[in-house]
TrEMBL record:
Methyltransferase domain: residues covered: 104-188
GO biological process, alphabetically ordered: methylation
GO molecular function: methyltransferase activity
Keyword Cytoplasm (UniProt): no
Keyword Coiled coil in annotation: no
InterPro entries: Methyltransf_25, RlmA_N, rRNA_m1G-MeTrfase_A_prd, SAM-dependent_MTases_sf
The protein, known as: Methyltransferase domain-containing protein
Keywords annotated in UniProt: Methyltransferase, Transferase
Domain called 23S rRNA (guanine(745)-N(1))-methyltransferase N-terminal: residue spans: 18-54
Amino acid sequence: MTNKEESAELVSKYVHVFSCPLCNSQMKVANLKSLVCINNHTFDFAKQGYINMMTRSTNSHYDKELFKARQKIIIEGDLYALPHEKISEVINEKINASNGEVMILDAGCGEGSHLQRILDEYKNEMVTGVGIDISREGIRMAASNYKKTIWLVGDLANLPLVEQSCHVILNILSPANYMEFKRVLVPEGLIVKVVPRSNYLKELREALFDDTDKRSYKNDETVSLFKRHFHLVEIFNLSYTKELTQTELTKLAQMSPLVWNSKKEHIDQFTNQGLSEITVDLDILVGINVKGDVE
Ligand SMILES: [Zn+2]
């Protein structure tokens, strides 16, 4: 079987969770080739096995090099091992996967490595991962690297999924659309959002920016917005450093949108320093989808 047919089989198994992004109607898999709604809106499986369900054109700054660098940092550099472990622990604790299938959606998954690492850590046959991102480049790479997970190019503001189809939503260092997240989460479903804290990648920001404002993050607004939509049950603060090699520092700079507005000499100075400690400083927000407003 080709990659395309294998993904089509996987999607067939979960086709009840799909909803047409154009008319919101039910969908089915046709000839192991495409996902088609009752009004005949058709979305084909790509060769790598993903489905492009975007209904508008977009311009993404995120190119192949950025995603390659990101994958290297996440998988080979293992820079996020602690958050991956923590998230998998939280899912394990809050979600009972013995009662049937569990869908974990990674909203804004990029090239899919965070989701894949968490699924590998979690190791549960009853769990299916769905990764969605607006970037076709990212999803194409995810589908080429990681089988057994459903990969979709799509819009967070118009998720191609039916109401109450997901048990867990992950939203890792990525923008959110809480209205949509609430719609597709089951009641009491879990949302895990990872946000930077003030010292996140501070060595990189200090090298890139002279302006002290840009040298640290503030996440209070993000946290309070989250609390307006979900019942916040826990916040885990993970703060640690990891030593990166010169090659890894280059990858780290490549994967970061921070460098888009930076001077080349600043970037070079950062990547040419040899071994360096890099700070990861994150909050993991754990929320529950309750009905109505929570605050
Ligand atoms: Zn349709």
